Every structure is written in structure tokens, then in C-alpha cells.
């Protein structure tokens, strides 16, 4: 693969970024090393870091930076691959811990890390297809499995934290949403639905559960839920691609377009009807989007309009985007 410079001309009126990281499969779907693309809003571009061998290759499905230290980054991919970086993605290492093998996941090599949540204080939560559920309390240096014994065999697909290193919620393939206040020692079901819950956002006491049919919303940590669906504009949309939260602003991508809420998911506006894969809001106005192969855009007005984002010449298929903006 060839890696080229990021075109800086489209960014000369916007604030600088520390880094923009794209999770890619360079020549999707062929067997090539998975990579992250690393660049800045000023046009500088570092060579991509391959952190797996072609023999067990899989595409990067989720990247997350620690909001309190954007140098600390974790990335998850298909085939049970996790990597961590302490220099904003310039180099990658293998985390310590028992994450690479577990009796809870007999099909571990079929797993993909499509859900990573940062809960603050160095705590990352990890989940995804294959029933995986993990946690790190040291910025990804060590990653260990959390107990799923109380979930009754539910197939966990996504995870989010509720403000502490031990309080979390998970979404499942067909068994609703569950909450644990003790890092997985015990579990209680808080939302009984049979739809796939694809990802979860937590905004204070508000929980948004994105499903293939729309969005469930609770304002009391999941104790009660309004009648579903709470918003007709999302009904029937595959709300499974990605979401990003800044304050009370929620940006969502799906195969039916881009959506935005400015009131923590109570009401929504559809901003585009074209399919998108990933979104990362760096402020209420600066938003990055990924639409697939060699196709990324950014918005300087909260997703109302977008401009092309030059991703280099790697000819790859990007699944996720992560970044940080200086104040």
C-alpha cells in the first residue's frame, strides 16, 4: 500500500488537531496488515503502523482516545485483536492481561471489537460480536475479562460506563440491556427488548440504546424507559453504525444517513440520507465522518454541510475515526 500526505488546503480555516486516526483494512477485503492512519489538521502525515500479521489479519473496527489524555489510545479489530498506544497512535503495543484467551468466548477468533467506551480515570470498556466483555483501568496497558456469569448466556455486543470504573451497561444481540454496579459480579436486566442493541451512549443520567429499529431513551440510568420509539425520524433506520457525544449534542451515522440531536437524544434531525460508517464529534461544530472506502468528510457547522477529507493514497476501507482538537 502507498501512503500519502493529507491535503491541508481544506483545513486552513479550522482549529488544529493533535491527531486524526482512521481504523482501516488497507485493501479490503484482501489479507493485508490492519493499520491506523495518523495525521494532523495541518497536513503532516506519519506512516501508518501495522500492528498485526497478514496471517491473522482483520480490520480495525473501533478506536478510542482517553478524553483526559489523548495520548492514550486503544484500538480493537476483528479476530480478537486489541492494541494500545501511549503516543496518540504513533506506535502500538500489545496490552497485558487475560484478554487474549477466555473460556467465556469459545469462538474468540471470530470476535470483533466494535464497541469501546472510555469511562474516565483510565477506564476503558470493550465489547463486540462474539460475546466479548472486557475492562482496563490503566489506560489500556492491561485488559482483562469481566464476568458474564449473571447474564444468562446473553450475547453481549456493546458496552458503556455509568461514570465509574465498576458501573456499566451492556447491550445484547436479542436479550436487551443489562447493568452491573460491581464490574460484572452481578447483573440485572434493565431493558427487555429482542432487537439487536448496536451501541449505547450515556449522557449524565440519560442512556441512549441504539437498535436496528430506532432509539430507546432513559433519563434515570435505565430505571424507566418511555414508550418506544421515542422518535419517529429514526424508526426503521439501522441505527447501528456509530455515534458521538459532545455535551448534549449527539451525532449518529447509519446506513440511512446522518442524524443529530442537540438535547441528549430527546429530539432528532436527519442531516443526510446517504449512508455513513463512523462519526467523531470534536466539538459541537467540528465533526468527522467516514463513509467507507477512501471517503471521509468533515463538517464545521455541526453536520449541516460537509467537505471532503483527504485520507491519503492508501486505497483502504475505513471503519472508524478518532481525533482530538486543541482548545
For the largest sheet, list the strands in their spatial order.
Answer: 3-2-1-26
Unreliable runs: 1-18, 26-58, 102-108
- Using only CA atoms, what is the Rg? 18 Å
**How confident is the prediction overall: mean pLDDT?**
76
Give the H and E element order.
EEEEEEEEEEEEEEEEEEEEEEEEEE
Morphology: globular
Q: Supply the helix-strand structural class.
A: mainly beta
Q: Helical amount among residues, as a percent range?
A: under 10%
Tally the helices: what do you get? 0
Instruction: Estimate what percentage of residues fall within beta strands.
Output: 35-45%
Number of strands: 26
Q: How does the major sheet shape up?
A: 4 strands, antiparallel
Terminal-residue CA separation = 34 Å
Task: Explain what the structure shows.
The protein is mostly beta strands and 327 residues long. It is 0% helix and 44% strand. It has strands spanning 17-25, 35-39, 45-50, 60-66, 69-77, 81-85, 115-120, 123-128, 132-136, 144-145, 156-161, 168-172, 177-180, 188-191, 197-203, 206-211, 214-218, 242-246, 249-254, 257-261, 269-272, 278-281, 287-292, 295-299, 307-309, 317-325. The strands form seven sheets. A four-stranded antiparallel beta sheet has the order 3-2-1-26, with no helix packed on it. A hairpin with a 2-residue loop joins strand 23 (287-292) and strand 24 (295-299). The two termini are 34 Å apart.
